[in-house]
């Protein structure tokens, strides 16, 4: 990777100010006017300037530390991804520092600023649900710091990505219900502002249209967070449908578990009356009765592949490496919740 960091002299030349003025403005020196400070800081932010001492640390590449930005650590999927990242990083002599965006674009931007001033050699990111603009990540490229995105990745942005085929996986899950004899299949959909959940909805629709021709839009209920609570509310709505769904594909396992619990409490037999399929293969899918059919989204392997690609980019920095997209194969794990007699 070519080192294209902005220097103090570059900044001085652009603003037509002396390097000493630039330095004092960035240090919030009282002798510099507020207008000049604001002008300098704005331009420094725009060009991705960092102080020489920090830039020097970046150039030495001696920290052997990776930064990781995840939406939420308490989501099992991200915990597994982190575990995979740490597994590979540890074997290759790298440390991992983890940050949570809490699905907030504001918090995500703050974390990127923090990482730009830390001695990290590369960054792995899963985007917050609020993120639609990627300008705050472009500064890493100016600093020569490689980025790898996983799962929720930028669209229309040339970068490195580790993903699964959400459309294909959802199609596979829905088609499984169809082959088990389900004719009225509902879908609990994820937040449609997030590409992965949009793809899962499209996969569901495509399978329905292929095998049944017509699609009943009333059978699709979108959620904001796909929590247990939202899943239970969706299940209560499905119970009021006439006729009720005889199959339900859920965009994650949390909502699928909620459906099973609410339906069984209402006297609905799973899978005899209604078959249920989830997505992600969370541990609870093997605890709930009946055990949940689900998609294994390869979270741990996703973490390994993200770390492997990032470390290769770090260690081969002098080579010209094109952005890569690695797509992992998923697996439909068939358990009792969809095994209609």
Automatic annotation (TrEMBL):
Residues 6-60 form the HTH lacI-type domain. Keywords: DNA-binding, Transcription, Transcription regulation. This is LacI family transcriptional regulator. The keyword Chaperone does not apply. It holds the Pfam family Peripla_BP_3. InterPro entries: HTH_LacI, LacI/GalR-like_sensor, Lambda_DNA-bd_dom_sf, Peripla_BP_I. One of its GO terms (molecular function) is transcription cis-regulatory region binding. PANTHER family: HTH-TYPE TRANSCRIPTIONAL REGULATOR GALS, LACI-RELATED TRANSCRIPTIONAL REPRESSOR. CDD domains: HTH_LacI (cd01392), PBP1_LacI_sugar_binding-like (cd06267). It comes from Christiangramia crocea.
